[in-house]
Every structure is written in structure tokens, then in C-alpha cells.
Amino acid sequence: MNLPSAFEEKMKYLLGTEYDDYLNCFDEPRHYGLRINTAKISVEDFLKISPWPLEKVPWIHNGFYYDGENCQPAKHPYYYAGLYYLQEPSAMTPADRLPIEPGDRVLDVCAAPGGKATELGARLNGTGVLAANDLSTSRAKGLLKNIELMGIGNVLVLSEEPGKLIPYFTEYFDKILIDAPCSGEGMFRKDRKMIRAWEEHGPDYFSKIQRSIITQAAQMLRPGGMILYSTCTFSPEENEQTIEYLLKQRPDFDICEMEGYEGFSQGLPEMTDSGDERLRHTVRIFPHRMKGEGHFLALLRKKETGSLEEEMVAAPSTYPGAGSCRKSGAQTGARTGAGRKKLPEELTSFLADINRQFDPDRMDIRGDKVYYMPEGMPALNGIRFLRTGLFLGELKKKRFEPSQAFAMNLKKEEYARIIDLPVSDERVIKYLKGETLDVEDLVSAKEKGWYLVCVDGYPLGFGKLAGQVLKNKYLPGWRWQSV
Ligand SMILES: C[S@@+](CC[C@H](N)C(=O)[O-])C[C@H]1O[C@@H](n2cnc3c(N)ncnc32)[C@H](O)[C@@H]1O
């Protein structure tokens, strides 16, 4: 194993006599993880239908190992139904250890491609709001797809430098996750390409970015709120020293203990100038001590009173942005459905078939597109975004076409017209490939209209019955790719 010598020296210093154990684990097989999406299915119900043997990740209630050399969960209809997310087991920890409560306003600052944001969204379970941001717009596109696939609707998907978000969201969020860009030392075992990247941009480069992100995020947290900071690297500069930096800048923050696990290791105050003993409550994951790749986590709380923002930031009484340069074509906050304005007939008649209460004031119609906004959203003019709210569908010449995101957000029992196929039915793959289906055996040709196509009771997308056949309305960009 060719590791950069500066990295080797640091790890010897960090690990002492355990260094050889760490090196030996490079020869061990990697761990493949699958996290059950509890927004769609309970752990118990998934275990009843799991096509593969699964072994529990002991510190994550909905996390499991699978045999990645012999199973391909990404090529299974349940993946297309959003029943699980494939994720390295240690990477499941940050979202799991941030205590999300129903109704919380949650920000994931560095969210793409959504490994943690999708779990945060599942925990909100349709309440509150999840703002998932990533500086990289191309990566944020993947994030949006994963959020929609997992059926999460109470979202904002943003693509901004975090500092730009502060005036809109000063002290707004109850919980913030910062899965910071980092030098990736914890991933060397899983992905050797990370070693080359480390040589280009190492801990010094990333620690500056992390300090900036964490102090910006601190301003968007309400007093009493919590931040979970994580990296997948070992370097103290990016871990304990970043937290030490925050605590110095922000005496209104403290470190909390998080739910433990026997394989976790304590943070290392001795790797900082201050030696602040509170840093022992941070968590390190070493791959030779447990079955997961290298990570670092710190759970932080902002004290209830006397937040620095009260002194430092003149929080705007109304959200600014009106009149500032808009980055995206769409205007949010200008809700044509607001004030109980009458909604278009074609939309109301579609929604009448859905067994769910929609608040007309939260309907946002922009051009021909209809969105269902999270409650109490500030105006976001001036922020680059990819999605605000649940994209319900499009108004087209006196008809409403429901979207893929809406299909994924629905539960089978919420919609009247269902075509539920068992996973063994060859029409499942045909549907996912975008083909027209013959469904004469399942529905009467007379009952025309939109149908929600499900696999074993879990929605995959819409189809429209016309004559004897079901026209396929599965989103073309999401289609099943034959290998
Ligand atoms: C470790 S990855 C996040 C992984 C993600 N949380 C997940 O679980 O799928 C770090 C992300 O930070 C983004 N990023 C880099 N610099 C950033 C910045 N200044 N603000 C916000 N995001 C940033 C990168 O584009 C990258 O997607």
C-alpha cells in the first residue's frame, strides 16, 4: 500500500501501537451498506421482503451490511421504489446522531448526493422543512434526484455558498448537518483515488473551508439548536481543531455527548492547542476498530440565550432578496395559490382523488408548474435553487399531469387507482424501462385516467390508461438501464 509519507507519519502519531492494525485493514474486504428508507417502509417490513441476506450495522437502527460482491441492490425494483439508500456504514452515522424532531427546520449545508439529507428527510416524516444545499450545482442535481426518489417532499434544494444563505435564514434552523468537504483520508481504504486527490488538496486546504462553513452555519442556527459536524478524514486540523476554532469564535456553543457505540473512539483534545477536554465528547471512527470507514463527528449545541447574533447581526425583520438578482428563472414566495385563491379546476379534480389534505395556501403555481411548499417559507429570491417544495406536476391545456416526484411521495393507500404488480411480474421491469403495459387483467379498460404503478405496494410512478393499454409516464431520465 503506497500511502503519502506525511500521512503515514501523522497516522503513526495518532495511532501509536495500533498503526499496524490500521495498515492491515487495507487488505480486508470493504463494507457494503444499505440504509432502509423509513419514509417508505419500516425496518421490520423491509426485512420481510429483502431479496438478500442482511446483517445489522450495530450502531444504526435502519442500517445493514450486504454482500456487495454477489448482490446488486442498485439493480432491483425496490431501489427504484426508493425503499433504501446504498451507503457506506460509517457514513450513516452523522444523520443518525443528529436528533431530529417532528416539525424541525433542518439544514444540510453540504448535502450532495444526499446520503445524509435523505435520512434527515425520512426522520422529518413529511413535517417541518429540509433545506438541502450543495455548492456544486452539478452535484445538487444528483441530490435532487435522490431526495425525490426517496419520496421526500418538504424540501428546498439549494446550490449556494453558505454565506449567501445567512441573510435569508438567520437563526432559522433547529438542526444543521455539516458533512464537510474534507481531505478524505478515511476513504483511502475504500477508494484509492482519494490518495491522489489528497496529494493535490490536503488538510490545510480543507480546514480553511471547514472553518468558514461551520461559522457561517452557526449564524443560521436558532438558540438551543444543534449542529452535527462530520468529516471522513483523520486529520486533527479538519476535526478537533475545527471544533476548537468554532468554540473560540462562538462561546455560545458547546459540545454534546452523542449516543455511543463500543467501536467509537473519543475525540483527541491533545491534538489541539487548547487541549479542551470537552473535545473528548467528539467521536472518531477508525476502520481497524469497527466495521466502517474512517469518520469524525461532533454534536454541538447553541446555548439558549445570549446568542452572538443578537449582538452581531441585525436580523432583517422581513427577508431581504426582493429586488436582488435572482439566479433561477422561477420566483418563489409569490404564491398564486395564496390567500385561498381558487386553484385551477384540473388540479383540484386530480387532488380530489388523493386521500390527503392539501392546504391551498401552500400551493405555488409558477407558469404551468405546481409546487406544494413547506409551511412558512421565507421568500428566496436571489438564492440559487433547484427545487422548492414538492413538485406536484404540470398544468397542460385543461389537464393536470402529475410528476414523478409526486408519485414517489404518495403512499399506495393515498390514491384510488392503483396497479400493484408483484416484483416477480415482468411488467415491473417493462414499466421501469418506459414501455407501454398491457393491464387488461388488472383494470377495466373503461376506467380511464391516471394510475399509480406500484411494486409490492410501493409506488414506482404514474401511467395513464387509454383503451386496453397503460401509457407509460415514468420519468425518462430515471429509466432502468440494461447492462
Ligand atoms: C462529503 S461531501 C457531502 C456528502 C453528502 N453529505 C452525502 O452524505 O451524500 C461534501 C460536499 O460539500 C460540497 N461543498 C464543497 N464546498 C462547499 C461549500 N463551501 N459549501 C457547501 N458545500 C460545499 C461538495 O460539492 C460536496 O458535495
From TrEMBL:
Entries under InterPro entries matching the protein: Methyltr_RsmF_N (IPR031341), MeTrfase_RsmB-F_NOP2_cat (IPR049560), MeTrfase_RsmB-F_NOP2_dom (IPR001678), Nol1_Nop2_Fmu_2 (IPR027391), Nop2p (IPR011023), RCMT (IPR023267), RsmB/NOL1/NOP2-like_CS (IPR018314), RsmF_methylt_CI (IPR031340)
UniProt entry keywords in alphabetical sequence: Cytoplasm, Methyltransferase, RNA-binding, S-adenosyl-L-methionine, Transferase
Molecular function, one GO term: RNA methyltransferase activity
Region Disordered, annotated ranges: 319-339
Record keyword Membrane present: no
Coiled coil location: none
Positions of the catalytic residues: C232
Residue ranges constituting the SAM-dependent MTase RsmB/NOP-type domain according to the UniProt record: 22-303
Pfam family, one: RsmF_methylt_CI
GO term, biological process aspect, one: RNA processing
Binding positions for S-adenosyl-L-methionine per the UniProt entry: C110, A111, A112, P113, G114, G115, K116, D134, D179
Gene3D superfamilies, A to Z: 2.30.130.60, Sun protein, domain 3 (3.30.70.1170), Vaccinia Virus protein VP39 (3.40.50.150)
Keyword Phosphoprotein: no
SUPFAM superfamilies noted in UniProt: S-adenosyl-L-methionine-dependent methyltransferases
Family: Belongs to the class I-like SAM-binding methyltransferase superfamily. RsmB/NOP family.
Protein name (record): NOL1/NOP2/sun family putative RNA methylase
Naturally occurring in which organism (per UniProt): Mediterraneibacter catenae
